[in-house]
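Good morning N.,

You mentioned wanting to compare the apo and holo forms, so I went ahead and generated the holo version with nicotinamide-adenine-dinucleotide. This is what I fed in:
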Amino acid sequence: MTAEGRFTGKTLMVTGAAGNIGFATARRFAEEGANVALVDINEEGLRDAVSKIRGGNGVATFHVCDATDARAVDRVVDEIVSRSGQIDFLFNNAGYQGLFCPMHEYPADDFRTVIDINVNGVFHFLQAVAAHMVTTGGGAIVNTASMAGVQGPPNMAAYAASKFAVIGLTQTASKDLAPYNIRVNAISPAFMGPGFMWDRQVKLQAEVRSQYFSADPKTAAEQMIKAVPMRRLGGIAEIPGTVAFLMSEDASYITGVNIPIAGGIL
Ligand SMILES: NC(=O)c1ccc[n+]([C@@H]2O[C@H](COP(=O)([O-])OP(=O)(O)OC[C@H]3O[C@@H](n4cnc5c(N)ncnc54)[C@H](O)[C@@H]3O)[C@@H](O)[C@H]2O)c1
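and this is what came out, ligand included:
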């Protein structure tokens, strides 16, 4: 089988598909033969993403959905199943970074918003797709956590809490779903860009003026990059291959694992 055909006949559902990592991963799976169902709250971004994938001869559909709305998530899963027959893979990737400020000033309403998107949202998609996969004989799920889910960074209380939760959800889901031939893993990117989240993180960490990062965004970016072993910014294009591996037959006995892309923070 050629590398291009690895996922032929399979359907991948991607959340956060209008964003950098979700789109890059959807495109990669489409290039390898999968039908891709792109889900996001951002309709304009979704339309653009789908038209780019179709322009490369990929098969893609788009579905506007708010991850925090459990009923909307159920509806979207039903819609994709009725169009594609079944969902083989879920890349559960939508996320929000939250505000940047120290713990004692972190606004409770933003804390709730981050948890609602990054934890409740991930749970809603995980549960709805798993319930479907239980009826079809199995599948594979990859949740996007973060290095902030392995080691809490400064000024990101809600994001760190939410991404630690994603890793916990991944571990429990992998055990609960193993009897149904459903594998559940996580990836934890470190600093990946250029892209919306990297650019925003550098700007906002600098603006906090904490003892950890320079108030000059260029210097703050250098400080962050020095904190990863390979001493460079990870590329968005360096993520889809890891997701594809975790979904593929090469990972047929891998479940409950979190892969820290970039190898950790020093
Ligand atoms: N870029 C990085 O450096 C980095 C590092 C670690 C983890 N991550 C994680 O990777 C994932 C993707 O990040 P990205 O860099 O592509 O960011 P991005 O901002 O480009 O994409 C995130 C997407 O999630 C969507 N989204 C937000 N709230 C939603 C909701 N309620 N319902 C549906 N969709 C919603 C956004 O519209 C956006 O398209 C996120 O979970 C993020 O936390 C990113």
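The chain has two domains: 6-189+239-258, 193-234.

Happy to go through it together on a call whenever suits you.

Best,
F.
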